[in-house]
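Batch manifest, entry 17 of 40.
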Amino acid sequence: MAFRSTSQAMQAYLRENKIVTEGQRNLNDGRFELGDVGAAPSSLGLCGNVAQIQAPAVLIDKRHEALDGQEEIVDIALQLNPADRAGSIRPTTSVLLTVTESSRP
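Output type: structure tokens
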């Protein structure tokens, strides 16, 4: 899913869903992948002309158990504020959210 959101709304989503509960104003501190991040939208079958999330950006991934017991990986790619070296989310950001099943050996 690709959409636009505000920094405030994304911070609330990350906190309330226990994805990133602290350090949200410092997302480039080494915990997450940085750069041009997220899956290539063309590989996801999305409608419209969705662009890849370009740097400065962060990819936050969260593994959890789905309702059917399978492990899922939720990837959230967000744009970072280029004027803030600390790594905060842009005031208005593009978001690319993908959910995939993890393959267990």
